[in-house]
Amino acid sequence: MSEFAEIIAGIQAGSVVPYIGPGAVADARHAVTGQPMPADSHSLILAMNNGQPMAPKLMYEFPRAAMNLELKRGRSFIERFLTETYSARYSRAAVHDWIKAIKPRYVIDINRDTQLQDSYADTPYTLIVGIARVGGTDYRFKLYHYDGSAYTEVVQEQVDASLPILFKPMGTPRPEPSFIASDADYVDYITELMGGFAIPSFLKEHRKGKRYLFIGVPMNRDTERMVLSDIVYGAAEPKGWVLNPSPTEKERGFCNKLGLSIIHADAADLLSQVEKSRTAA
Question: Residues 168, 33: one domain?
Answer without folding.
Answer: yes
